[in-house]
Design brief:
heterodimer; A: alpha+beta; Rossmann fold; OB fold (Dihydrolipoamide Acetyltransferase, E2P); 6-stranded mixed β-sheet; 5-stranded antiparallel β-sheet; 10 helices; 20 strands; B: mainly alpha; MetI-like fold; 2 domains; 0% strand
Chain lengths: 368, 280
């Protein structure tokens, strides 16, 4: 077990700046998830920590040691790959024992470690099988066992569940979470799936274009996204965005005009912004209320999706072509073709300035 | 019987006729060599498709010749060494060419391919000088060296193609497990590359086993010759007689090991040559 500390980490491939000045602390025993769209540098960042890529600039510490120039085996890290990358010609036992054998561990210790790892992952029955005789979930567990058997200080996961089908993915997600509770080891996990990130992480790191957008607990990221990117990335269905203009500021917050919805009084602090500044208003599907149409506030329902426990209602704005989504518990009284007014829950509305940064709430202002 | 059925039968007959034709074309010379080797020298020029008498005297004669046995031994030493060296160098080179990114990688690959394009005769005199300088004239080591030069390009190309298809993550997993490149090659890649190695190894063996021109040029004495040269230089009772019987017997003797090897490895060869063509 160990902590990881990244200081001003950069990675440049030729002309491409893949990782741009990243600072990050991963505490001892923490489960940290790197999440972001493809090409955001999350896998590269993981590979830099693993030692599979060299760091162009910056300092990487594992525990108290700077490990920039150490090869992977001396960093004390174990890694689980997306494609599992099991050695096809070796049995499950040999796959797990391979790293220990290379480290010249005593035969009895190897046996002990492999057996105890196999017990934790319920692989005892499969130890003599070859990888090709295993199911996807079993291979996944062997890949984790191989990474764990050497008792690394940090376990790294590179999109480990993306090769599994949906139901197995949920099951393995659960197993990984329980494994973390049980082992208490430091884990860093890369995924593009925000549901995996939300469910597994103690701390989520949202990456975009090689930079950190926001670091926080799942609750912080969901309830108080720092940027419009994070707001749009976390949560499914995604947050609704609509253009808005700042009308006035007062002690209670600000007044804005949102296109199609009308005037709203919001708690956000917009003192630093000029009059009629362009803003983006964001509201999650569950924080919208539908009402009979009134005046300009009139949207057409273009589709209703029934999911059993809840209903998604898709609304067409008068301008722009991005559909807005409303989520409510089933059953729903709404039908396709109806016209409705949108009433956002002002306590749960997010405001973003032109550069996509969220405006502070008064509580945050006082705390700061 | 309808016209459709007729044409179906005709097609089938044509198909098999074609196969028989190809078989006869490919196998008949060897078949005739076997038959000839089983005839006493008096019957040699009587054309028969099935030998009326079975006579093993040609085999007895050739197998009691010390120089021929010596030539077989030399051939085995040379061919096995060539296979071993070519595979060792081929595997390590293909790791570098298939796995390590460096400037000029494709140039190196093209140069290697270029080497195999020269006809043997073109390099013969130059190679002769090299072998003289290295003091390898009339020495099987000289043959091993020159065969390896001509075997390596093919070996390296096939193995590089194969190596490139092994997933990158497999190597990275080995790195995470603390494997050095050498351990990765021997413990992880080698076991996966058996089909490719069987294919290239067998082709290298056949090339070295059958090679004639270099073997003739670079050896002088009976004790250093390989089988193809030894067969060609078999002499009869007088300067005007070619001992066809013993020549054919010797040919059959040296061909049989190849046939056996190919039969043993044929499955591997096929899977080696097509491996990676379709995702397995």
């Amino acid at each position: 077990m160990a902590s990881v500390k990244l200081e001003k980490i950069n990675k440049v491939f030729g002309r491409d700046h893949i990782i741009d000045d990243i600072d990050l602390d991963v505490g001892n025993g923490e489960f940290v998830v790197f999440v972001g769209p493809s090409g955001c540098g999350k896998s590269t960042l993981l590979r830099l920590i693993a030692g599979l890529e060299s760091i162009t600039d910056g300092e990487l510490r594992i525990g108290d040691t700077i490990v920039n120039d150490l090869p992977p085996r001396e960093r004390g890290v174990g890694m689980v790959f997306q494609s599992y990358a099991l050695y096809p010609h070796m049995s499950v036992y040999d796959n797990m024992a391979f790293g220990l054998k290379l480290a010249k561990t005593a035969q009895e210790t190897i046996h002990e470690r492999v057996m105890s790892t196999a017990r934790i992952l319920q692989l005892e029955e499969l130890l003599h099988r070859k990888p090709k005789a295993l199911s996807g979930g079993q291979r996944q567990r062997v890949a984790m066992g191989r990474a764990m058997a050497r008792e690394p200080r940090i376990l790294l996961f590179d999109e480990p569940l993306s090769n599994l089908d949906a139901s197995l993915r949920v099951q393995m997600r659960n197993e990984i979470a329980r494994l973390h509770n049980r082992l208490g080891s430091t884990m860093i996990y890369v995924t593009h799936d925000q549901v995996e990130a939300m469910t597994l992480a103690d701390k989520i790191v949202v990456l975009n274009g090689g930079r950190i957008e926001q670091v926080g607990t799942p609750q912080q990221l969901y309830q108080r996204p720092a940027t419009q990117f994070v707001a749009g990335f976390m949560g499914s269905p995604t947050m609704n965005f609509m253009p808005a203009q700042l009308l006035a500021n007062d002690d209670q917050g600000c007044r804005v005009h949102a296109n199609g919805v009308g005037e709203l009084a919001l708690p956000q602090d917009a003192q630093t912004l000029p009059q009629s500044a362009a803003l983006t208003l964001g509201v999650r599907p569950e924080h919208l209320r539908l009402a009979p149409p009134s005046g300009d506030n009139r949207f057409e329902i273009v589709n209703v999706e029934y999911l059993g426990n809840e209903v998604y209602v898709y609304l067409e704005p008068k301008e722009g072509n991005t559909l807005l989504i409303h989520r409510s518990e089933a059953p729903s009284q709404w039908e396709e073709g109806q016209h409705v007014a949108l009433v956002p829950d002002t306590q749960h509305v997010h405001l973003f300035n032109e550069s996509g940064t969220a405006l502070d709430l008064p509580a945050q202002r006082q705390a700061a | 019987m309808t016209a459709r059925q007729l044409s179906k039968i005709a097609k089938r007959v044509g198909f098999w006729a074609l196969i028989v034709l190809i078989m006869v074309y490919a196998v008949f010379p060897f078949y005739y060599a076997v038959i000839t080797s089983l005839k006493p020298s008096s019957d040699l020029f009587r054309v028969e498709l099935w030998p009326s008498t079975w006579d093993l005297s040609n085999y007895a004669q050739i197998l009691t010749q010390a120089s021929f046995l010596r030539a077989i031994f030399n051939s085995i030493v040379v061919a096995v060494s060539v296979v071993f060296i070519a595979l060792l160098l081929g595997i390590t080179a293909s790791y570098a060419l298939g796995r390590v990114r460096f400037r000029g990688r494709s140039t190196v690959l093209l140069v290697i391919l270029g080497v195999s394009m020269f006809p043997q005769v073109a390099v013969l005199s130059g190679l002769f000088e090299v072998i003289r300088t290295l003091n390898l004239y009339n020495n099987p080591a000289g043959l091993i060296l020159s065969y390896t030069i001509f075997t390596l390009p093919f070996t390296v190309w096939v193995l590089t193609t194969f190596m490139k298809q092994l997933p990158m993550e497999l190597e990275e997993a080995a790195i995470m497990d603390g494997a050095t490149p050498w351990v990765t090659i021997t413990k992880v890649f080698l076991p996966l590359m058996w089909p490719a190695m069987a294919t290239t190894g067998l082709l290298a063996f056949i090339a070295a086993w059958n090679e004639f021109l270099f073997a003739l040029t670079f050896t002088l004495t009976d004790a250093q010759r390989t089988v193809p040269v030894a067969i060609a230089l078999l002499s009869g009772g007088s300067a005007y007689e070619l001992p066809w019987g013993p020549i054919m017997a010797a040919s059959v003797i040296v061909t049989v090991p190849l046939v056996v090897l190919v039969i043993i490895f044929q499955r591997r060869i096929v899977s080696g040559l097509t491996a990676g063509a379709v995702k397995g």
